Records
---
Amino acid sequence: MNDHDLIKRTADFVREKFLHEGSGHDWEHIRRVWQVARALARDTPHANPLVTELGALLHDVADWKFHNGDEEAGPRASRAWLESQQAEEPVMQAVEVIIREISFKGLGVATPMSSVEGELVQDADRLDAIGAIGVARAFAYGGHKGRPLHDPAIPPMVHESFESYKQNTAPTINHFYEKLLHLRERLHTPAAREVAEKRHAFMEQFLTQFLLEWESKDVKAGPQEKP
Ligand code: ADP
Ligand code: NI
């Protein structure tokens, strides 16, 4: 099978699988990551386009968040699909490594990518976690998990291990301080960093306004005494 057909078949497979997913890990997320990774690859010499595109399309194929914390579910599902399509071993291997390395694992945990293609896919995935889409996805995920929007009595944490990050059940606002506001500093490519500036500023503005409204500080008569 030529590269174009393999990408097309993979996109069809992933679209079909994720079309009705409502937790922020939907096909539209994957479509955006695919599109952005492809755009970043055009500016990156030596990036293998097939590995970049397959990595983007398959990066969330079986995320640990939805497989009882099983970190190998994604790499395994990716290999099973690519084997069924008779992909070449080095391509399967490269894609599997991207999926194994890509996830955010806690503020105190480094997540270096061992290939340039992996860096592009991780940048694209992280750009989709910030900005207006990032805000929407965070609350979609929080709603899916039944989390409160905010609770000032529960302060954000620095997770020093993937295990502690995985077990986290804090309100969604905490996720901004525990992950989303730090993604800008953890991008690899200059093009992604540039895009992140506006998206980051938007999130900060959102948080300022959210916390103002939380205390009704923008209401003329208020703030009222707490009941
Ligand atoms: P990653 O692999 O880096 O976690 P994903 O592509 O799997 O990224 O996307 C996870 C999405 O779910 C992101 O938009 C992220 O902000 C959101 N998310 C993950 N954990 C939480 C959480 N505890 N609260 C709110 N949103 C979350
Ligand atoms: Ni993703």
---
Amino acid sequence: MKRAVFPGSFDPITLGHLDIINRSLLLFDEIIVAIGVNADKKYMFSLEDRKKQLEAAFKNEVKIKVKTYKGLTVDFCESENAAFILRGLRNTTDFTYEQSIAQTNASLKNIESVFLVCSPEVSNISSSIVRDVIRNGGDYRKMVPKSVFL
Ligand code: ADP
């Protein structure tokens, strides 16, 4: 069973996340979309709301599970029996950041990171830009799945 964890804050989930997760269904038998809980971080959406948004976005896909975790992503992967971490790449900034995280994770546990390059139509979408648009009263509905605004 090829199981991957797709970790993130998902504050909120965007069409960028959806693009990576849906395309990775060809590669894995099961994908755990895992919300990392960091007590020191301030979020726009509560953990409960983010979990509900994710569950609603993937309610028709049996291969996708939504979970939350604290602590190291590699420890969570081990506890879930997942051998892969899935991440998305938008640009070289993402690559540089992801490279050091992937190398650190590989040095901690025997877990392989797998990267998908995002589709061009979502390369400008990030949760932080969505939050900025929301804060300033702009129309963010083209950037997120319906579960974020319904
Ligand atoms: P983090 O807090 O770890 O940055 P995010 O929720 O922002 O978590 O992102 C989780 C994953 O989704 C990361 O691999 C990130 O690169 C990827 N991602 C975010 N937005 C996009 C996008 N527009 N296209 C492709 N991947 C994306």
